[in-house]
Design a protein that fits this description.
Elements lengths: L3 E9 L2 H14 L8 E3 L6 E11 L3 H12 L5 E12 L4 E10 L1 H17 L12 E7 L18 E4 L1 E10 L2 E11 L2
Antiparallel strand pairs: 1-3, 1-8, 2-6, 4-5, 4-7, 5-6, 8-9
Helix pairs in contact: 2-3
Length: 187
């Protein structure tokens, strides 16, 4: 049996950071129609390092080995929240995000190495450049988000990154449910 599960590799965020992000999202969306943006639930806030998609369960041990090797070669580092924005742009937002700053060179180097390891395991190389952010919401109707409050101030909360996680995402009618399948500690 070739069972598959939907996976991604991410950095979890401390509860204090999630609280600030949720408060910021609420302020941004105060003047919007009720369902103009699907805001991310607190348990789903994270920094994605690599989306893997449908993955054979048989590949879990190899992925875990690669994550363990990766994190055994990288020290813990610090990031902080830094502003809000949108993909592809604020004029035509599809995804509303919170930016990150801090030890970005360390984060970028680790993500490049992760990408190389994932490609060695058989995944295609990611075409888009890595852009560190935390998704706050997905725009359902861009015509309804003209009142989005871009002037909101995002507290530049500082936090430590100490682990990288392999996360399963189950898509359900009520939204995605995330389960950590493996957590690898940075040195």
């Amino acid at each position: 049996m070739n069972e598959k599960i939907r996976l991604f590799i991410a950095i979890d965020l401390p509860e204090a950071v999630k609280k600030v992000l949720l408060e910021t999202a609420a302020k941004m969306g105060q003047r919007l129609p009720h369902k103009a943006v699907r805001w991310v639930k607190p348990e789903q806030l994270h920094l994605t390092l690599r989306f893997l998609g449908d993955t054979a369960v048989a590949q879990l041990p190899d992925l875990q080995d690669q994550l363990a090797q990766l994190t055994s070669q990288h020290s813990a580092f610090r990031l902080h929240l830094n502003g809000v924005g949108a993909f592809p742009s604020r004029k035509r937002p599809r995804v509303v995000w919170a930016g990150l700053d801090g030890d970005l060179a360390v984060l970028q180097a680790m993500q490049v190495e992760l990408e190389d390891r994932i490609v060695e395991l058989g995944w295609a190389r990611e075409k888009r450049p890595f852009s560190p952010h935390v998704t706050l919401g997905r725009v359902k109707d861009s015509r309804q988000v003209q009142a989005l409050n871009w002037d909101v101030v995002l507290a530049e909360l500082d936090f430590g990154v100490t682990a990288v996680q392999l996360v399963q995402s189950e898509l359900r009618p009520s939204g995605a449910v995330y389960t950590v399948r493996y957590s690898a500690q940075l040195i």
